[in-house]
Amino acid sequence: MHVKKLLVVAAAIASVLVYKKMQESEARKSVWSKGTDKVT
């Protein structure tokens, strides 16, 4: 039973980390595209 709880907690933490990485990546793309749009 404890192993299941650990797996659930680990999965939740992993999904939060992945979500944050995706948001960070999107923010960088947005900043990059805004910066390069002015040049073209």
Give a written overview of the molecule.
- It is a single chain.
- With 40 residues, the chain is mainly alpha-helical.
- Helix content is 90%, strand content 0%.
- It starts with a helix and ends with a helix.
Mean pLDDT: 88
Which parts are unreliable, with pLDDT below 50 for 5 consecutive residues or more?
A: none
Shape: rod-shaped
**What's the total number of strands?**
0
> The biggest beta sheet, please?
none
* C-alpha-based Rg, rounded: 17 Å
Secondary structure class reads mainly alpha
Q: Beta-strand level of the residues, as a percent range?
A: under 5%
Helix fraction by DSSP (H/I, runs of at least 4) = over 70%
Q: What is the count of DSSP helices, taking H or I runs of 4+ residues?
A: 1
Distance between the termini: 59 Å
**Helix-strand topology string:** H
What attributes characterize this protein structure?
0% strand; 40 residues
How would you concisely characterize the structure shown here?
The chain contains one helix and no strands. With 40 residues, it is mostly helical.
Give the secondary structure arrangement, pairings included:
Blueprint: H1 2-37
